Amino acid sequence: HAEFGRQALKAGxxxxxxxxxxxxxxLDPKSAEIHLDLSDVYRQLGLSKQERTEVERALKxxxxxxxxxxx
Length: 71
What we know:
mainly alpha, 79% helix
């Protein structure tokens, strides 16, 4: 689901990207990368609260994530 969601995000299909990445987060909640990808979707959708929540989840999973610190 994560890879399909990333492909959808790259293609600009935010609806599919959101759906697939939300499912991927449910299946693998300890993946900081997936949380960050989902935060990108939320950012593009203008959902800043959800975006911030996913960045915080990514940092909780991987406190050393440089990418998460710069979001």
